[in-house]
Specification:
The structure holds 2 protein chains of 2 kinds. Helices cover 65% and strands 2% of the residues of chain A. Chain A is mainly α. Chain A is globular. By secondary structure, chain B is mainly alpha-helical. In chain B, 70% of the residues lie in helices and 4% in strands. Chain B has 15 helices and 4 strands. In chain B, strands 1-4 form a two-stranded antiparallel sheet. Chain B has a two-stranded antiparallel sheet with strand order 2-3. Chain B is globular, with a radius of gyration of 22 Å. The relative contact order of chain B is 0.18. The chains are: A mainly alpha, B mainly alpha.
């Protein structure tokens, strides 16, 4: 039944399980999309608005699922407590940007920074390789550390990356005759376009433009329908990448390599005593995960038009962690589901709700908490408070995420979704139903007392 | 000891531990370069004096705030990522009281604006003339409330969040503490608004100039207050740990929890006192830092958390004196490093130092001396 362990020896069973998992995932994503479309219909959204909202939703589902999958390789499989995800993403997109921005060989005007002008695909490969190399550099010394020290080192490194990107000394420099740089605090403008360059490469840019025009006219999208279709098409592209991520990581997880990783997670000493060079396995696993994070970072930011260092704050790392924990560490299917649920309900959901409420009801703006709370105290009038809460939903959303994380760690540390059958994470996240087996957790205590969760249904 | 003997030892050090040897060489080169820069006048001595003073101030704060982190790390066995937001909460709570008192309980500005520490730029600290010299009562009350409020918050969160999962692994608690940090941080932003505000009347703080060789190093009253408060609190904690039964129990528990429980130490009570001491120090430290720094914003604690972690790790987790020494080292690193690197990378240098210490000497400077 497990998507990870048991199936490898029984090809027939594996296929059945795969079908099962795939259906689950498609059903979940389809259900989420249907929910959004349904809500949009109820609110009399136009076609353009609907398509935009779907494009955005698919985008976030795909990127968070990809990131959760990559993190699952680190944490769920190998037990590496990486909370520097955003640092590797930043390296990926920045290297891609520097490599693929159009070349500038003469002194550019103030504020504009050139790149090396390489083709985009080469830039993407460069970005992924850079993230992987950086991963090796971090892993080589840091893997000897305890999990909590490793966590602090990785978050420290992701902040060092951000400070370096912010630093004005690297804003612009001349390298091999090219004027390149990291842009400092004002960031870099990305003058390339993944969607367009892919279409050009396949040679369908013209038909695509024609198609968007005609389809746009049919659907009544109004003027300039191309961006809408671009976002949908990019969403589909990301879903393709997501499937590739999933297949790759499933393959890794079921390979002998993956089994060693899981063994390391459960008990590194025992694995060592079986003659496995655990450090090499850990470095490899960390590197692959970092490369995938770099790729996910590139896909995340490449279509945004510009990047600034302050977009790479550690909170994105924690978003990915929440997604992984929702899904349940140790399960690829769960990671994708966690990413989808996180993106749809915790990340996009509140903002969608905010738009809906602000468009449907005319609630006056309340600018400070004081103005919101005083009517509540003096006249039991909750309306200003609600208005303030909705206006500041972007902040409340993060409070909700924090509370969700606490709730999950208390009640469902094995994840809400997914169906991990093995005692996974190297931390004893739960009262596992099978914690009595030989694969006793590596860390000292098994938290079987506090949590009654563990029926693993849903 | 002969020269050849010493040479031999040096060579052995290089061969056996090349990383450490390289680090020693780098440190020596940096010190020599610093001496050269001061001698040549590339860095003025008074400039360097200001760096040392700033480093000392930051370091005292890191040390004071780090004590709590170090204690929870050793006694409760987890890295508390919500510690930074305890600091922010304490600073805000203290500043609310300071604003309200300095604003004459609504006499000088709208009481609501005062209670929200001037959200949206409705009241500024300079308007109210906040400072140790100008509004001493408001500041003292603010510092006390900062400590008390943080203690209450920490106890509340411990009761609700950490105690039910006390027996889980450190990693589970760490992840939970990240959730707590998020909830607290953005709740603060929700209530007090996203703006960064000036909270003191920085122009009116009395200061004296201490003549250095080629200029003056000015020291103001807020710096002196931060110094005095930190030193007093550290001394008090030292006496508490060394002279009282509670201190002994704490040290015992940090050393070996099971053994402590068998010996009859009420571990849950010790845990409560750990939170009380750690949180009160964090709150007061945060308040004094804000007073010194003059600005207050909702992600202050998060920004300060990583250097505090660096201080605690540097000093050795569980060691209170280690946290203080580590804090001073990190603080001085952050301010003196700008002699060599651009100032934007000062914090990066501090983190790098932390990573290097973790790699070379993961047990910290004060290794093996838990809470003593």
């Amino acid at each position: 039944m497990s998507d990870d362990e048991g199936g490898a020896s029984e090809p027939a069973g594996l296929a059945a399980v795969w079908d099962n998992d795939a259906t689950k995932l498609v059903a979940l994503v389809g259900g989420i999309l249907a929910l959004y479309v349904g809500a949009g219909t109820l609110l009399d959204y136009g076609v353009r608005q609907q398509l935009n909202s779907i494009g955005l939703l698919v985008f976030y589902i795909a990127v968070f699922a990809m990131l959760a999958l990559a993190l699952n390789l680190h944490w769920g499989y190998t037990g590496l407590f990486n909370i520097g995800v955003i640092g590797f993403m930043a390296i990926g997109i920045y290297v891609t940007a520097v490599l693929s921005k159009s070349a500038t060989v003469t002194e550019p005007a103030a504020g504009s920074i050139g790149g090396f002008g390489l083709p985009l695909w080469l830039g993407i490969i460069g970005g992924v390789v850079a993230a992987a190399v950086f991963g090796v550099l971090v892993a080589l010394p840091a893997l000897r550390l305890r999990a909590d020290y490793f966590a602090i080192v990785t978050v420290g490194i992701s902040e060092i990356v951000r400070f370096t990107l912010l630093e004005s000394s690297f804003q612009q420099m001349q390298l091999f005759g090219y004027f390149v740089g990291l842009g400092g605090g004002s960031g870099l403008i990305l003058d390339f376009d993944i969607t367009d360059s892919l279409l050009d490469a396949v040679g369908v840019a013209e038909p695509y433009a024609g198609l968007t025009e005609s389809l746009g006219a049919t659907l009544g999208l109004g003027g300039n329908p191309k961006p809408v279709f671009d976002s949908l098409y990019y969403g589909v592209l990301l879903l393709v990448f997501l499937v590739l991520f999933y297949l790759l990581l499933r393959r890794v997880g079921n390979s002998p390599f993956g089994r060693v990783l899981k063994a390391i997670r459960e008990d590194e000493e025992a694995t060592k005593s079986l003659g496995k060079d655990t450090n090499r396995f850990k470095i490899k696993s960390f590197t692959i995960g970092c490369a995938l994070m770099g790729l996910a970072g590139i896909l995340f930011y490449a279509e945004q038009g510009a990047i600034t260092p302050n977009a790479f704050r550690p909170r994105i790392t924690f978003f990915v962690w929440i997604a992984l924990i929702i899904g349940g560490a140790g399960s690829n299917t769960g990671s994708v589901m966690g990413g989808a649920v996180f993106a749809a309900f915790l990340f996009r959901g509140p903002l969608f709700l905010k738009n809906v409420i602000q468009e449907s009801f005319d609630i006056g703006a309340v600018s400070t908490f004081g103005q919101a709370v005083s009517p509540l105290i003096s006249g039991l009038n909750p309306v200003p408070m609600l208005a303030y809460a909705i206006d500041n939903l972007a902040q409340l959303q993060l409070v909700i995420m924090g509370l969700t994380l606490i709730y999950l760690m208390h009640n469902r540390p094995e994840g809400l979704l997914g169906h991990r059958q093995e005692p996974a994470a190297c931390i004893p996240l739960t009262g596992l139903s099978r914690s009595d087996t030989a694969t006793a957790p590596a860390t000292e205590t098994d938290g079987g007392v506090a949590s009654k969760g563990g029926d693993g249904d849903e | 000891m002969g020269v050849s003997d010493r040479y031999d030892r040096g060579r052995r050090l290089f061969l056996e531990d090349p990383v450490r040897a390289v680090l020693v060489v780098i440190a020596v080169v940096l010190v020599l370069d610093l001496v050269r820069q001061l001698a040549v006048g590339q860095t003025q001595i008074s400039e360097f004096g200001v760096m040392l003073k700033d480093g000392l101030m930051r370091g005292l704060f890191f040390g004071l705030a780090g004590i709590g982190l170090s204690m929870t790390y050793s006694i409760l066995n987890f890295a508390n990522f919500s510690h930074g937001d305890f600091i922010t909460s304490g600073s805000f709570a203290g500043m609310v009281v300071t604003y309200v008192i300095a604003g004459g309980f609504g006499a000088e500005a709208d009481i609501g604006s005062l209670a929200l520490v001037g959200a949206d730029g409705s009241v500024y600290g300079a308007q109210l003339g906040i400072g140790v010299a100008t509004t001493p009562l408001a500041v003292v009350a603010g510092a006390v409330v900062a400590g008390v409020a943080t203690v209450l918050l920490a106890l509340f969160i411990d009761r609700l969040v950490y105690r039910p999962i006390r027996d889980r692994s450190g990693i589970a608690l760490l992840i939970t503490s990240i959730g707590v940090a998020f909830a607290l941080r953005y709740l603060i932003q929700f209530v007090f608004g996203p703006s960064r505000r000036g909270v003191t009347d920085s122009g009116a703080v009395p200061s004296i100039g201490i003549p250095a060789v080629d200029g003056v190093v000015s020291v103001n009253l807020h710096e002196v207050s931060l110094l005095v408060v930190s030193v007093l609190l550290m001394l008090g904690l030292h006496l508490l740990l060394q002279r009282t039964r509670l201190g002994k129990a704490m040290r015992a528990m940090a050393d070996n929890e099971d053994l402590a429980r068998i010996t009859g130490i009420p571990t849950e009570r010790v845990v409560r006192f750990t939170w009380i001491i750690g949180a009160s120090l964090a709150g007061v430290a945060g308040y004094m830092f804000v007073l010194w720094n003059g600005t207050l914003h909702w992600f202050q604690g998060w920004i300060l958390l990583l250097p505090i972690f660096a201080a605690v790790i540097l000093g050795g987790i569980g060691s209170v004196y280690g946290a203080i020494v580590g804090g001073l080292v990190i603080g001085l690193t952050m301010s003196v490093s700008i002699v060599w690197i651009p100032s934007g990378l000062a914090r990066a240098a501090a983190f790098l130092l932390m990573i290097v210490v973790l790699l070379v000497r993961p047990e910290g400077i004060f290794a093996g001396r838990s809470t003593a």
